Amino acid sequence: MVKENAPQFHFQTKFDLTLLLGQKAASARELLAHIRSVPKASIYFHTHKFLEQHHYLSPEPPNDFAYWVSTVLNETNLGERLSSIDIIQFRSITELRDSIIGELDRYLSTSRRAVEAPNGQEFYFMSCRTFVLPTPFVAHSLTDFKNFLKLVSIQSIYYHIFDARLRLEQGENDFSRFFRSLGQDSLAEEVLRLDPYTYTLEGLKQKLVSLIEKHERP
Fold it and tell me: If you write DSSP's letter for every residue of 130-172 in order, what string do you get?
């Protein structure tokens, strides 16, 4: 029997509708100007969409900005700078945006190159509208959570780990918050310390299951 007011976790899932913003950049300077002004959802889209669309690859490929300046503008130095931004250290899209702006600013202040993309290869800014849907899985215990975790989709994992922490700017993933509500502070900290960007989504699910099994009470 579930105790009244006992902690519970509602697994949710999501799907994204991709939006074209009608803004494009033909040079690193134009890229910087648009990054300063586009919605936060666009910054999130261009730094995270590959994780979900190509979830079987690990480690993660560079963000869209790094990929474009490297492969289209042939600005390899700038591409390396943008690729080296460690997304896990940021707690908000604003902080991530500021870091990208900083790298572009520093590069443009010292570079004399003024490369423009060939016609048709400009950087097109995109965004997405996220629709969150409930699942039938509601956990009331750590064992419940582990069993349902094995059943939910990778979109659910993505939503509760990536979206919750950065796009929704909660500063902590949903799973760690639930573990704390169960008194599982050690497990919550272990999950919080994970760098989810170094796993495939299936690999991340398996890692979470193994951590829960380590902390399950007999």
Answer: EEEEEEEEEESSHHHHHHHHTTS-HHHHHIIIIIIIIIS--SS
